[in-house]
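I am writing to request your help with a piece of structural work I have in hand. Thank you for your consideration; the sequence and its tokens are set out here:
=====
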Amino acid sequence: MSERYTSFTDFWPHYLREHAKPRTRALHYIGTTLVFAVAVYAVLSGKLWWLLAMPLAGYFFAWLAHFTVEKNRPATFTYPLWSLAADFRMYFLWLGGKLRPELERAGVR
């Protein structure tokens, strides 16, 4: 990653290009879904210590995707907060069926 991003707006297309392969995005969706499932379980069961498993659930699948499928360096290492925000944005756009135009604008086919 040679360019330094100074705004989330500029970072977002880069993030999408770093998630160009559908399998990469699918593994992210699995991890993000598990994050929400763990949060719901922790709150409903009263076992709040389960909240500590949220980063493990999310990052395991995301990093697995980057190192084995996309073969690139996770954006989390350089832009941790923007990467987290972008992951949730990508997830909810995907759930709403609105991710494709964003991918196309970013140059992902």
Summary: The chain has a mean pLDDT of 96. The radius of gyration is 14 Å. The longest helix spans residues 22-45.
